[in-house]
Amino acid sequence: MTIGVYIHGESALHRVAPGGKLVALLILGTLIILVGNPFALAALLVAVLGLYRLAGLSLRTAWQQLRPALFLFAILFAVQWAYHGPLEGAVVIARFVILILFAALVSLTTRVSDMLDTVMSAVRPLAHVGISPTKVGLAFALAIRFIPVIAEQFAEIREAQRARGLERSYRAIAIPLIVRTLKMATEIGDAIEARSFDPDDARKFAIRRAKRSRPAALQSDTRKETL
After folding, report:
1. N or C: which end of the chain has fewer CB within 10 A?
2. φ/ψ bin of 17: left (φ > 0), alpha (ψ from -120 to 50), beta (otherwise)
């Protein structure tokens, strides 16, 4: 899965505003829960794969987004089959496949910096109620950054448990993964706190530094225009 990795391109999807893509992802994630018809889900899957081709991305790229989650798909399908039957299991997996593919497509065709700017702009009106846009942007950036890290941790744990003959035990994989993720989150939080890092202060410092680094001629012209 290549969440957070941007592939340069000149397609129509690359030129769509990041806000439009994120809104489309939000709408799709909400509406797909209401879709239970296998044929409708199949049509959505074909449409998403068509968007990959429209963006100039190969179907192999689409497959690479799904391959790390195949083990989880197998577990989910088995659970759904046991409780609700194979058809419901296929519907649940189809929903996850469509969402993962579309989310990855948004990431592959949008720079992370553009997504962060969009998220921070959307949250900025909430600054009046005490919600910091820069802190929300930091959380969003960390989430994107550590999705591939968690995927790597999952692969390492699965290989280790396979050597012990426990590759079919979801508990033997899920519990160590949760423990590692929580430990990593705690270490990152401690590191940020130890440095007294405040994204709001960092942003203000960056703005002041950018103003000071402007060419002297530009500052002079600005003063003349003000006078």
Report:
1. C
2. beta
Distance CA(134)–CA(123), nearest Å, equals 9
Q: Compute CA 105 distance to the chain's CA centroid, rounded to the nearest angstrom.
A: 10
Which long-range contacts link 34-39 to residues 24+ away (Cβ below 8 Å)? 35/95, 36/91, 38/87, 38/90, 38/91, 38/94
Distance between CA atoms of residues 188 and 150, nearest Å:
14
The domains of the chain are located at 1-110, 112-211
pTM, two decimals, is: 0.67
157-200 tens-digit pLDDT: 888 888 888 767 777 878 888 888 888 878 877 776 776 666 55
Q: Is 215 left (phi over 0), alpha (psi -120 to 50) or beta?
A: beta
